[in-house]
Amino acid sequence: MVLNPVRLPSECLLYTFDIFIEREAEILKPLSSCEVVEKEDVTFETEISEEDVPGEWKHKGQVLTRSPTCEIKMEGNKRFLTLKSVPLEASGEVSYTALNAVTSAVLTVKEGKPYFTTKLHDYSVTEKDELTMVCELSKPNAEVKWFKGDQQITSSKNVVIKADGKRRMLIIKKTEKANIGEYSCDCDTD
């Protein structure tokens, strides 16, 4: 409240004042912590007492805005945040603030199973030349198996199976007609 004295002509003193009412909100349903596997979507939900207050979402201290990987919705008193295709490094605090009310939770992102980021393609090679088939995985320590048709391939004097970081290679040192066929690399998940 602010008092403002005003002088009137008859030497009377009149006081006027302004009243400011600060609006407050209350969290009716706090955020719950979530655990998700990387590359999955996760949705946080809270409910507040004020229907017309949009509020503000934060992830790891950064204000969030709508984007292809971040969906923010209001339905009555409910507020929703959906993070899409969550990366492993997204683990951290998620918070929602509306006026004076704050709620927060922890997002835990667990490492998912490996998947191919670059798949095999068709290869053409001249007989007796070396052929290197390459694919790439999401994780450097993922185990793979190589197949020709439904037969598993193992290393030999003419076949080298190699891993280099996330890349997996099948090298046929000296190709021949017997090498023609369909090859695949299997990481048991993709």
TrEMBL record:
Alphabetically ordered keywords of this record: Cytoplasm, Disulfide bond, Phosphoprotein
Intracellular or extracellular location(s): Cytoplasm
Claim: Manganese is one of the keywords in the record: no
Domain Ig-like positions: 114-190
Keyword Repeat attached: no
Main location: cytoplasm
InterPro entries assigned to the protein according to its UniProt record, in alphabetical order: Ig-like_dom, Ig-like_dom_sf, Ig-like_fold, Ig_I-set, Obscurin/Obscurin-like_Reg
Annotated Gene Ontology cellular component terms: cytoplasm
Annotated protein name in UniProt: Ig-like domain-containing protein
Annotated organism of origin: Hucho hucho
Top-level taxonomy: Eukaryota, Metazoa, Chordata, Craniata, Vertebrata
